[in-house]
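Hey L., structure's done. Input below.
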Amino acid sequence: MPAHNIALVLSSGGARGVAHIAVIEELLRDGHRITSVAGSSMGAVVSGIYAGGHLTQYKEWLQELDYWDVFNLLDFSISSQGFVKGEKVFKKIDHFIPKVNIEELPIPFVAVAADVVHKKQVVFDHGNLKAAIRASVSIPTILHPIKTNDSLLVDGGVVNPVPVDLVRRHPGDKLVVVDVNANIPYQKPHLPAKERSLINELKQRYFKWRKKEKKKQDELGIFDLMTRSFEFTQETLSNLMLEHYKPDLIVRISREAANTMDFHKTLEILALGREAYREAIRQNDDFS
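Output:
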């Protein structure tokens, strides 16, 4: 397999974006060099943490999460701006994001958010890395938006869920896109015995918790309903972008693979990302 320089674009998509981590690992394992990254929402989180050098630590933390851990990270609030403040989860994620400006990163990084006051896209290619990532993941009506001066910033998936037009490409770079909002059938990935055992353990912990917390589980069901509506919009916008821009390689993950907050499925989603990458490679003559 020939090695390439890669301009990498990671889509929005909530917990399905965990697959981005697996694709990055597989690209590097195959000898490719990632020269620039761009991301929207969860894609901004993963690409920013990768550019900052802490992707392995972030993955290890995600792999330890069960359903109860994820639920405890959701600081629910009664607010017209969103169900979840986001302070608890971002306090955790902050551990994996270096305190640097974007222009100090070893490779170019771009994140995108939506300004709902001025009805425009906001591009972060300089300035504080943490602030850029936080602005890009404020899912409308779910996570509280970010106020900056006279603007109100929400999730990048609102305007550009797969920012192929923003990634910085050097001459000769291959454009690789990971789209986790694809309208394709979902097939469970093959899992090694060790990972199957861990997943079964997490499921047992979830079912025990569910019996005790049915009322809260119903509340989370409303949360999932709203995020699924948003995900449908992301899929439509993604398709339009990918029809206009022609990536050299697209790794597609079914939108049915996981709901927005299904981070307790990290092991399964990582396996899915690896398999989706290998399948995309098999069907692409430039990479096979």
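The radius of gyration is 18 Å. The first strand starts at residue 5 and ends at 10.

-- N.
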